[in-house]
Amino acid sequence: xxxxxxxxxxxxxxxxxxxxxxxxxxxxxxxxxxxxxxxxxxxxxxxxxxxxxxxxxxxxxxxxxxxxxxxxxxxxxxxxxxxxxxxxxxxxxxxxxxxxxxxxxxxxxxxxxxxxxxxxxxxxxxxxxxxxxxxxxxxxxxxxxxxxxxxxxxxxxxxxxxxxxxxxxxxxxxxxxxxxxxxxxxxxxxxxxxxxxxxxxxxxxxxxxxxxxxxxxxxxxxxxxxxxxxxxxxxxxxxxxxxxxxxxxxxxxxxxxxxxxxxxxxxxxxxxxxxxxxxxxxxxxxxxxxxxxxxxxxxxxxxxxxxxxxxxxxxxxxxxxxxxxxxxxxxxxxxxxxxxxxxxxxxxxxxxxxxxxxxxxxxxxxxxxxxxxxxxxxxxxxxxxxxxxxxxxxxxxxxxxxxxxxxxxxxxxxxxxxxxxxxxxxxxxxxxxxxxxxxxxxxxxxxxxxxxxxxxxxxxxxxxxxxxxxxxxxxxxxxxxxxxxxxxxxxxxxxxxxxxxxx
Length: 503
Prior knowledge:
Number of strands: 25
Shape: globular
CATH architecture of the largest domain: 3-Layer(aba) Sandwich
Oligomer: single chain
Largest sheet: 6 strands, mixed
Number of domains: 2
CATH superfamily of the largest domain: P-loop containing nucleotide triphosphate hydrolases
Radius of gyration: 25 Å
CATH topology of the largest domain: Rossmann fold
Strand content: 25-35%
Strand order of the largest sheet: 7-10-11-4-12-13
Structural class: alpha/beta
Helix content: 25-40%
């Protein structure tokens, strides 16, 4: 990092990114983007997937070099040529996927690459004292000698924050920090953010959950298609206006409406049990119906769906499909019987990221696409391109690697491969997690479309507005059991769901 000294003046502006440009082959990711962050401020950074948020943050963090533009920290011009240079300049970025080594201890992760030694030996005692002081500063107790693999997701995030403070960060960027946190853990994080603000740190907070942005941000900056649309004081903008800025058009309703026309029973589950996680669960879902499953983290919703899909074997219980008892021993049985599952963790369980879009589309459809053990790649490519058009999947082509697609487009590829099966029962587990507002709306339209085609749609979601906005009926679970059912969804509230979920 090289710095050009400028006269030091008392200035509330901590960070300025001026007229940043960045292009990749075939894509101009950032176009003349400027950002300003004050001391003791939280700046919300929002936009659709592919809007340029990640690229802008990677420029700030030294992972990308800008094609044009400048960065000032504390009023001084800096050139950030690497992540190490960013750290030296006081910038620390906490990515959604943490940069912790699971087999190392908390202390070892915090000081990784910055170990202090004496005669070739690490000063472990000094590092441990410093680690405890860091945790005391943020009001948390974690054993410095615990392995990171033994920590909860929330504790791992705290370790990342402690790492940032250990290098005297002035600017902390948090990328989707609550994506895998419970409501209580998120509340503790917000308290911690308030404390960091009070010490004069500047925080850039990236999230697709707009309610969080309104809770923690002082100002909000919107990117769209690589351009800076605007920055507003959070008190001067409402949710509808923010969504309109993000997607570039007025949005009449966040949740598209449809007239529910239900038909015959597609799926019935009776007294499903599995260990301590699922206890005598019974429910049914009909053709043309969207059945929502609500509950706190750990309520057993995902476990129920894995049993139905054959990913786990139930201890007891019965499953009926179209009125007939079904023996489902594995996912192959479920697929043949017209059940598909869009998993909660699409990157690990729903996709092979190092394979192409075409190959991912083909995986559950190989029985149709192969002959004499050879895949008909031309047919596979043609079918994928048809779905890419109808689902508006943004790719550079069928041979683009899955890892290079945005979260929303990855989810659409998962939907495409299952739509090709013409399944009658479609299970969505957290279908919009980590997806922006615009892509969410398109997935909602797809779910409605499936229901209108006579499919039975089951949706698990931890976002209560989503459950209330899309479901025709809601099942609420608590500690592996069905605690209640809401049939009059139009008159139900989030409090009605929570009262059952925490009972």
